[in-house]
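Customer ticket, subject: "Can you confirm the structure for CT398-like coiled coil hairpin domain-containing protein?"

Message body: Hello, I'm evaluating your service for our small team and ran a test protein. I'd like someone to confirm that this is what the system normally returns, since I don't have a reference to compare against.
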Amino acid sequence: MSLGSDLIKLQETDLELAKLGKQLGSLPIIDELAKKRAALTKLRAEATRLLAVRKDAQIAVDDLDEGERACHEAVAAAQARPVDPSDYRAMRDLEEELSNLAKRLERIEFDRPEAREALAAAEERERKLVDYIKRFEAAIVEDTRAARDQASAIQTEIDELSLRRSHLFGRLPEDVQGLYERSSKRFKGLCVERIQGNVPTVCRTALQPASMDALRHATDYAECPYCHRIIVVNEQE
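Agent reply: Thanks for trying us out. I re-ran your input and got the following:
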């Protein structure tokens, strides 16, 4: 394999490595995963809020139940309290106390359906969101696995190309290695060009007869007099 051919293949390998590196760093599925994880954070925050709403609704129901229990105990205690029927004031106080307790019980019975309805609605919203979050988390796990597989496949290509690059670069003479590295950095990877007729394939500036004559005397490569890239003269295997 000629030096010119090695230079062309080395550049092709470097360009492919750069492309794969960019692909690895910007996989669409990675962006989607980031969006889904952000959405999951919001869903979990909403789940925390619904949990608080459900607990408040449960407390409201429990308070009514506790109020009812306390009222019944107060009624039983009032009825068990000895009162002289001839004591008008004591009887009036007892009747007023029992009346107030009865009103409280009526109010509790009036408020309980709404409180239980609010609790049932809160429980249903929380249950649906929890189920949705579970499915959402499972989808993220699957996407993460798919992203890992895609990244692994690209990384395998990168590893194989890196070995090929090391082999190609190692076959270049030391001075050509330095020339290639400097030129590649200067021209952002596109530092080697062919010649088609009298026109270099990258800078596309037609060479003058004197420059063409110099190329004919070059062995494997020369420098473009205009853009100063490496022109491959002999690309034969």
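A couple of notes from the result: The domain at 3-172 is CATH 1.10.287.1490 (Helix Hairpins). The two ends are 4 Å apart (CA to CA). Feel free to reply with more questions.
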